[in-house]
UniProtKB/TrEMBL annotation:
Gene Ontology molecular function terms on file: aspartic-type endopeptidase activity
Disordered, as annotated region: 95-117
Protein known as: Peptidase A1 domain-containing protein
Residues in the signal sequence: 1-27
Active site positions: D142, D343
InterPro entries recorded: Aspartic_peptidase_A1 (IPR001461), PEPTIDASE_A1 (IPR033121), Peptidase_aspartic_dom_sf (IPR021109), TAXi_C (IPR032799), TAXi_N (IPR032861)
PROSITE patterns given in the database record: PEPTIDASE_A1
A Gene Ontology BP annotation from the UniProt entry: proteolysis
Annotated source species: Adiantum capillus-veneris
Residue stretches making up the Peptidase A1 domain: 126-469
Amino acid sequence: MDAFSGFYMCLSILISMGFLMTVDVQANPWKHIPPSTSSFILPLYHRDDPTSPLRQGRTSREEEIGRGRVASRMLRDMARVEGISKRVGATLKGHGKMATKGGHTRADATGRQNVSAPVNSDSGEFFTTMRVGYTDFQLVMDTGSDLVWLQCLPCTSCYQQTGPLFDPRASSTFAPVNCTSISCQQSDIMSCRGQSCQYQQAYGDGSFTVGSMARENFYVDNYMIHAGLLMGCGHDNEGLFVGAAGLVGLGRGPLSLPSQISSHTFSYCLSSSGPGSFILGHIDQVDNASDRVYTPLLRSPEISVTFYYVPLIGFSIDGQMVSSINPSDLLLQPTGGGGVIVDSGTVITRLVPSVYSALRDAFRQAAMARGYRLILPGYSLFDTCYLRPSSNMRPFPSIELHFQGGASISLPSQNSMYSIDEENGLPIPLVCLAFASVGTSNDFSILGNVQQQGFLITFDTQASRIGFLSNQCSS
């Protein structure tokens, strides 16, 4: 173990025991966590929300090139799903490392193969602000990955971000990770270059980051959440996140933020209009809520530990189970295939074709009985669209999700239908079923963030369960 790693391990132990004293305010204006603090609440902003720090004072790419906002979002979403598909497929085939979409490789002076990519996917959906060292940065929050990283100076190739790049030279608490340290052996994305611990992380959709591993202090407001968090300092980054400084991985792997700070519980409320919330740790009013429902969190026996799987077994429309859905088509298989992934970065819930067809057909039939006329051919990846209903029409059919163990959640209309109001080239406002097929080449499904919005969703890895509490984002 190198000196830095040993120091930070001891420091982390002291913090967890509550014995770390407050730093001199003149030396560091940001206070450490008081021993009584067990949770942190951060605002979450959607990338399309005008109140987001990433949107203030700048024009969106969709506005600049005249592309429809929904069409652009669906293109990003398709790239996201393809990225997950490549990662799942690569692991099942025994590769264990993430692939790139149409990418190529290039070797540096050491002969190490660095990932490269031909596309810009702009795949970040939700962002928050954290202080890293002594500076605030906007970072993507992502349940579908583990690594925490920022764009860093000096930068070989960096995308445009809002605000300055992280400068290690300006932080007295920044510490590079030595190649021989235990920290450099935690993941196969790390390798040695001289005495430096290097990393290369590809996301499967053409996005990547390459750089060096380091440790740095992370803060929320005025409190340190972790001394010496293991992070990537990205010097070569492409394809990511519309102005964000980097990414905070929330997955189940050892490099994720929850894993590093030993927080077995985190929660979020997602909102596309106005800020949502991200919670690290426990909140009493959440823990004691009697109307929260739980279902188990599953782990694939073969696939990367990153993903969170849930035992979704079926759907009902207007209270009637869709009997043509075979629950086994949704379950995680012993071989590692199948299953339903909860993902904050995927927009529209994707279902295996057999399940999606059954749900779609049942919904269409129920909507037709209420007087709705299907508009073909739909829009983008949506194939079940209707004219926006007038005030005197009955609401759209309700959709309920059912999980193993008897848990179920009923989706409000805004979680089951996607509004398309002002798209370029679209003469009429549409409302579309917010589900789609994952494609014939995939056997897994994804619970997307449109269906998650408005619910306080709690990931409890210690108890291996996930909780859903409706209508709690405002509080």
